[in-house]
Structures are given as C-alpha cells and as structure tokens.
Specification:
The protein has 684 residues and is α+β, with helices and mostly antiparallel strands. It contains 19 helices and 32 strands. It has a seven-stranded mixed beta sheet with strand order 19-23-24-28-27-26-25. The longest helix is centred in the C-terminal third of the chain and has 19 residues. The protein starts with a strand and ends in a 7-residue tail after the last strand.
C-alpha cells in the first residue's frame, strides 16, 4: 500500500519526515518496502485489510506517535432507503450489504491534486468519475463501481449467482464464461459485473455517460475469492474484498464519493441512497484480562496505556475488575480472541521495551522420545566425520530396488503406485544414497560423502536404519598421500556409530549382501546377552549397480548400513562412574603372528580380549604383511598391546608372561605362530 505523507497527515498529525513515519510503522510490526520521496510503501499482510487504505495507515501512525486521529473523511451520511429509483434485490448470501446511489455526472479529467495523489499511490488516472471511486477505495478502503445507468435493463440491480453457461465481457475486453459458483451483479436481463472483482464492458462509464448508478457493497470474502481464482482475475477491489472489508463501510464510501463529485464538479446525487442490508453486523466483544496480558507479554503494561492504545486503534474499552471488556470495530476482521488484543497492545507498547526473561517452568520437561534422541546423537557423529545428511525417496522403481533386496526376502509392493518409478518401498537406504551420489558426481563434485537415517521395508516389516555412502578421494593433506575412500572407511564409521550407541561391532565375511563386491564386503555383528546378532553390512557396491545408476565404469562407491533397533538392542547399559587419570606408566609391546590369510583380524582381536589379563587396556592391529619371509597361504598380522596397572608400575616379567599366555591362546584357537615379539617400547 503506497501512501503519500501529505495524504496521511490530513488524518493524523504525524512528523513531516517520511523516513521517521516509516521507521515507527516498522516498529509496530509493518514491513515497509521503502520510501520514495514523500510516499511510504507498506507491505500489508493478508490479515490486515483495514490497512489497505490511507486512513487505516493513518490510524496506526496516530497510535504510534500518540497524536489525534481526524474523523473518517466523508462527513454526514445522506439518508437511505431500502428501495429507490433503481430497485435492488439480493438473492445470495455472498452479498451481505448493497448500497446504491444515482448521480448525474459530467465526464471529464480529474483535478490536478487528485491525479497527483492517484499517481503517487500507483493508480493510473482515467476520468473524474472512475478516479473518484479509486480515490475513495485508497482513502478509506471501500471498493466501489460505477455503472452507466442508461445501460441497465429495467433499470434494476439483482445480486445473484451466475447462470450455467452465462458469459460476460469484462472491462479488460475479455469474454469470460461463468459458472454457478460465481457471484454477479445483474440487471433485469443479464450479468453486468463480477461481484467484487471487475465490472462489465457493456455498462462501462464512457464520455457519453450522463447518469451513473454508483455501487458500494460488502461481499463475502469466500465468494469473491472463488470467482477471482477460477477466472484468474486479480484486481485492487478483489484484493480488499477477499481479505474482508468493513460491513459498515458501503454507505460511508458512497457519502465520500458523492461529496467529491460535488467538490470537483463531476456530478450530483439524484434521489435517496438505496441501502439493502438483510442482517446488520454487530461489533463483537472480547474480554481482555490484565493477568493474561502480563503473562503473554512478559511485562506489566500500565492500565492507562492499554486503554490509550486500544482506543486509538478504534476499539471501545470498558474497564472491569480483572481487566477490560473490549468492543471490536467491524473494520478489524482479524481480531476475534483475547490474544489478538494482547498482540495489539504489545505492538504499540513496544516489544523492545519488554525485558528478556526465561518463563517459569510449571513442571519438568518431558524426556525426548528415544528414537529422536538416538537420531540426534548419530547425526552428530556422522556430521563430525565429514558426512552430509541426505533425504531420499521412500518409493522406488522395482528395477532400482531389486539389486538391494536380501536373498529370499521379497520387496513390498505399493497397491496404487503413482508410476512405475514409485512401485515398491525401498528395501535399503543405500538405493537413494547411490542415486544422490550420481546426481552430485554429474555436477562436478569429486568427493561425495552422504548419510541418511530413515525407514527401510521388506516382507518382514519396517526397520529404522542408518546408511552412509562414500566415493571419491579422501580429504587431501600434505602429510599423507592421496587415496580414495575404501571399505575400511565405511567400517570405521560403523565402529564409531556402535561406540556412540554403547556397543562394539565385529566384521565377518559377507554371504548375504549380493549388492557388494565379494571379498570387499563384511557383515556387521554384535554380541549381546542373546548371542551374536547381525546388525548390518558394509562394503564396495558392485560396479554393475554403480554403472546402471549412471556412474562411469571404474567409479568406486563404498557404503554401509545398520539396523538401529538391532544395534540398540545389543548395547550395554551405560555405567555411571568416573575413573581417575592413570598415575602409573603404561607398557607397550608389538607382537607379530603368522595366521591363515582368510582369518579375519576381528576374530584374533576377540581371542585376545577373551584371554586378556586385567592389565591389558588397549589392543590395535597396525600392520598386515604378505611377501618375502611369509609362508604360502599365510599372512603376518601385527598387534600393538598396551598394559597398565592402576596401583603399581608393571615389571617386564609380568608383561612378558601376559604376552606368552596370549600367544598360546591365539595359537590354540587359530593355529597362529609367533613371528617376532618386540622388546620394551618407550612407556607413555
């Protein structure tokens, strides 16, 4: 809404500086699009149609600056009758009030002051009669329309729904086909205007017009919105009617327009004003409680300021013991509840004056849902290792889903798919993640590291899972040679997730994950109270799948997926205890063993922990060697063992006995033989 400051100042004695006025309006919750010279451009939200007028903005400005507001323009209302020279009939509830006046007019140009104000407000001048109706709409927010009275059959006005197949050529020259949902203004024979939207070309005011029938009405917002949307026709009038105009505004608008006709020499009223109002609107009443006001705003607003603000905004305020009984003016269509009144007080009291305080808690907050808390925890871990979260489709095409289905477990079909591309539910999160990798790689992204937490489906039911996928080079650093992401990266991520949940993961050779490359895949297991359980798998995605999804041959994609319910079920209860920092030094020994080349290192690690003394605090495999000096069919695995006692410094003899016992246990369990045992290393 563009409002020239000089026009605003006719209703409220606000400062002469438009920037100052704009700043104060912005502080009251209005979005000011800008100040162009003396014109302030205010973005009015859909709930404030009363401010789609200069007088409405002047009311807000007067309240903000605490200055007097002039009475609404237009003066005294002329006498009205339910019937007059032109009979008016309302046949549909979409029109709540219809006022009409006849005037003899002399069509010509508008005076310069009126043209300048319309131009400043962004409206193109046309002729004095049309310009005055537009001026009244901008000034007090009441849309109006003038018919050439000589074109009305009867003459009479009937507000009704359009007849099936009825057409109307509107003022923009377009022939529009109407339907029975559209409200029209008709004469005795045909529709002459779209109610609240646009007039018809047949009754348009022209240079030959000598008498007009001037319409000023209240239309139901839903009725106008229906017509406007179905015809794709948006006008200044429909914008106001759709949001809600003042049901007491039609006669005031007529009075203002007729006054301007006489003031500018454009015309003079003929006969009484017709006013058909089947059900007059009564102003609603809302009770505002002092305690509720303080509770929501977080501050005590003095009673005199509450009354001043609401009265200045047009509300009638009657004090009561616990607060006020407030009569809401009919132009405030957005105020229905106590909280609406509190917002009005807060806007003009000043939100910047309210101290920032934390609300008092009446009760302890409820604990988070377990699944939500777990999801947040895992997201922090995955984001912390450089992965970005993705959100992919749950519905897939069968061809895309089948390669990721577990052997012997069927897919879940969708009964009424939107298309073949959405015919089944995803059996794995990796399907969508691989497609996301393809999308990013095609757009020049070399390293793509993604994860997703969501549901996967198969014939056994729904399972909540976390999956991650990596491709491209690892982040480069001068201290290490460049290398691409591999299976050990996804396995490391799985171990981090297990640690975050409170369990440990073991990797075993995969036999039931056909979407991975054989020999470069692992089934992920945990050991809990009920024994060993499969919780997921990781590995390198088959090149055939990668190529089918759109990546070039040779592209390496590694991925992993865990079943969250199974993972959490294997977690150990968290123990709440604090351990002091070690006071005694640790002893580190490196041990190398010849083992079968097919033996997973995780099995050896499990044997070490199963036979470890209390003093063993850390186990890490750091080397795998095959070559000169290693027997055929065997490999050399090297382990770094860390020993520490909480109450003393360990002796070399104690450490050596422990290592010998572990080597004996590994040999018995796996047929391993000792390659070498290093001497004491520097203690930590």
């Amino acid at each position: 809404m563009k409002a020239p400051l000089s026009w605003l100042r006719e209703s409220a004695a606000v400062p002469d500086d438009p920037a100052t006025v704009a700043t104060r309006l912005a502080a009251c919750g209005f979005e000011v699009a800008g100040v162009d010279g003396e014109t302030i451009d205010v973005e009015v939200t859909a709930n404030r149609p009363d401010c789609l007028s200069v007088y409405g903005l002047a009311r807000e400005a007067a309240t903000a600056f605490d200055v007097a507001l002039a009475p609404p323009p237009g003066g005294d209302l002329p006498p009205t009758e339910p019937t007059g020279t032109v009979p008016v009939t309302i046949d549909d509830a979409g029109c709540g009030r219809y006022a009409l006046a006849l005037a003899d007019v002399r069509i010509g140009p508008s005076p310069r002051w009126l043209v300048d104000r319309l131009a400043a407000a962004g409206v193109r001048p046309i002729s004095n009669v049309v310009d005055i109706t537009n001026y009244v709409m901008l000034e007090i927010g009441q849309p109006m329309h003038a018919f050439d009275a000589a074109t009305l059959a009867g003459p009479e006005i009937r507000v009704r729904l359009a007849r099936p197949g009825e057409t109307l050529v509107t003022l923009d020259g377009q022939s529009r086909e109407l339907d029975a949902s559209m409200l029209v203004i008709a004469d005795r024979d045909r529709a002459t205007a779209l109610a609240g939207v646009m007039g018809g070309a047949a009754s348009e005011v022209s240079n030959r017009t000598t008498r007009i029938a001037l319409e000023s009405a209240w239309f139901d917002p839903a009725a106008v919105r229906t017509t406007s949307r179905r015809l794709g026709l948006k006008t200044e009038a429909s914008t106001r009617f759709e949001r809600g105009t003042d049901p007491w505004g039609p006669t005031r608008g007529l009075a203002r327009a007729l006054s301007l006709f006489e003031q500018t020499g454009a015309g003079q009223r003929v006969g009484p004003m017709v006013d058909v109002w089947p059900s007059p609107a009564a102003p609603p009443t809302v009770v505002l409680r002092r305690a509720r006001l303080a509770s929501l705003l977080g501050d005590q607003v003095p009673d005199q300021d509450v009354i001043r603000i609401l009265s200045a905004l047009g509300f009638l305020v009657a004090p009561e013991t616990a607060g006020w009984r407030v009569h809401v003016p009919t132009f405030r269509v957005d105020v229905h509840r106590e909280v609406d009144l509190i917002e009005e007080v807060g806007r003009h009291w000043g939100f910047d004056r309210i101290p920032a305080t934390f609300p008092a808690l009446a009760e302890l907050p409820r604990p988070s849902v377990a699944g939500l808390d777990l999801g947040r925890r895992l997201r922090r871990v995955l984001a912390g290792v450089g992965l970005q979260e993705a959100a992919t489709f749950t519905f897939l095409g069968r061809e895309a889903a089948e390669p990721f289905a577990r052997p012997g477990i069927g897919l879940v079909d969708i009964a009424n798919p939107l298309s073949e591309n959405f015919s089944v539910l995803r059996p794995s999160l990796m399907v969508g993640l691989v497609d996301a990798v393809v999308y990013n790689r095609r757009r020049g992204q070399e390293s793509v590291n993604l994860f997703e937490i969501g549901a996967a489906f198969d014939a056994r039911g729904e399972a909540r899972r976390v999956a991650w996928v990596l491709t491209g080079p690892r982040e480069e650093h001068w201290s290490t040679p460049a290398a691409s992401a591999d299976v050990y990266d996804v396995l490391g991520i799985a171990e981090l997730l297990a640690e975050a949940v409170g369990t440990e993961i073991e990797a075993r050779a995969a036999t039931d994950a056909p979407w991975f490359v054989p020999g470069r895949a692992a089934v992920l297991q945990t050991t809990g109270r009920d024994g060993t359980a499969r919780v997921g798998a990781c590995g390198q995605v088959l090149p055939a799948i990668v190529e089918a999804r759109g990546l070039p041959r040779g592209e390496v994609v590694v991925a992993g997926e865990l079943d969250l319910e199974a993972l959490v079920g294997a977690a150990r209860p968290a123990a709440s205890h604090i351990t002091a920092l070690p006071r005694h030094p640790s002893v580190v020994r490196d041990v190398s063993l010849f083992v079968d080349e097919r033996l997973p290192a995780a099995e050896v690690r499990g044997t070490i922990w199963a036979h470890a003394p209390d003093t063993l605090v850390a186990v890490r495999e750091f080397d795998r060697y095959r070559g000169k000096g290693v027997p055929e069919g065997r490999i050399s695995l090297s382990w770094r063992l860390t020993f520490r006692a909480p109450d003393r410094t360990l002796t070399d003899h104690e450490v050596q006995r422990a290592i010998e016992a572990l080597v004996t246990a590994i040999g018995a369990a796996h047929g391993a033989t000792l390659r070498s045992a290093a001497g004491p290393s520097p203690t930590e």
